[in-house]
Design goal:
Blueprint (H helix, E strand, L loop, with lengths): L1 H56 L3 E3 L6 E3 L42 E20 L6 E7 L2 E8 L6 E18 L7 E10 L12 E4 L2 E5 L11 E2 L3 E2 L2 E5 L8 E7 L4 E7 L6 E5 L8 E9 L4 E8 L2
Parallel strand pairs: 11-17
Antiparallel strand pairs: 1-7, 2-3, 3-6, 3-7, 4-5, 4-6, 8-9, 10-12, 12-15, 13-14, 13-16, 16-17
């Protein structure tokens, strides 16, 4: 009798296990589908949050400009300073306030033209809108992006408005913005409002820099890939014949200084052996004999690279 009961219990347990396994097998697709849906839902939520954060971080704002960002490329400097282009940054199309300062005037006529000035934003930006305040009907103002020595046409402002903001929607990445007068000296723009946001892209890519172009072919390429050492400075960017370069206190490395003109041609080269001096004097009277904008490039044997611009005066 005991043996029969024992066998019956064993059969019953075995039958229960078969039922459980069968139920799990039948429900497995449901569990898999539910898990996949949960995973997809989580991934969608993560993607949505990331996109929302990205959109929040990339909301275009007005980029505040200042005179320190300007490089006047006019020989002998402009008659009316290009600083007038950025001296009323509280005025913009959004608040409807109109600036009333003078417009940039490079010279009296086109004898020394064309005339250029560029803005150095210091970092790479995604530019979304350029607003120019036009004082009256006048001549065209050309806008370019790129970098010194390698400019690309972006747009032309016809200056047909009167005391009004002329807005241009754009989509371009650049650190530099160049304004040019090629037809005459009366492009009546007296303020620029710039909109966009910073990007994570480095200012100079692996094969970018100051280039010299002759009939469309690149003859010389200067690689500016690591421009982040702010401890290397100049004693002012307006020079005559002498340039003073301030070196970092921890700069215990041999280094080299090159100078290029805006055509990308190297006009100065000198190698230095490390010494305790924190300042280097360069006499560039013969190498930079012509007035204008030049690019100074510092680099040492530890990989530090720094580019600086200066203006040589007559």
């Amino acid at each position: 009798m005991y043996i029969k009961i024992k066998i019956s219990r064993i059969i019953w347990v075995f039958y229960q296990n078969i039922l459980i396994c069968t139920s799990l097998f039948l429900l497995l697709p449901v569990f898999n589908s539910t898990a996949e849906n949960i995973q997809k839902s989580s991934e969608s939520e993560i993607t949505a949050c990331a996109n929302q954060k990205k959109e929040s971080n990339e909301a275009p704002v007005q980029i505040k400009l200042s005179a320190e960002m300007l490089v006047d490329e006019v020989s002998g400097l402009s008659y009316w300073s290009p600083a007038y282009l950025v001296d009323e940054q509280s005025c913009n199309p959004e608040n409807g306030i109109h600036p009333f300062s003078r417009a940039w005037k490079p010279y009296f006529n086109m004898d020394k033209g064309p005339y250029h000035v560029y803005i150095d934003l210091g970092e790479m930006y995604e530019l979304t809108k350029i607003a120019l305040h036009v004082m009256g009907k006048s001549q065209n103002l050309e806008i370019q992006t790129g970098e010194p020595g390698n400019w690309n046409h972006l747009l032309t402002e016809p200056c047909t408005e009167f005391n009004a903001w002329s807005e241009h929607n754009v989509s371009v990445k650049s650190r530099y913005l160049r304004l040019s007068m090629k037809e005459g000296v009366t492009a009546q723009v007296n303020e620029i409002a710039l909109y966009g946001y910073k990007t994570n892209q480095s200012v100079y890519t692996e094969k970018s820099g100051i280039i010299n172009i002759n009939n469309g072919s690149v003859e010389d390429l200067v690689d500016f890939t690591n421009d982040n050492d702010r401890s290397i400075t100049l004693d002012g960017n307006l020079v005559n014949d002498i340039i003073y370069v301030n070196l970092p206190d921890e700069g215990d490395h041999d280094f080299t200084i090159d100078i290029y003109n805006l055509n990308g041609l190297k006009v100065f080269h000198k190698e230095f052996i490390y010494n305790v001096s924190s300042k280097v004097l360069l006499n560039v009277a013969s190498e930079c004999s012509q007035s204008g904008v030049y690019i100074l490039r510092y680099y040492n044997n530890s990989g530090v690279l720094k580019t600086l611009k200066f203006i040589k005066r007559d």
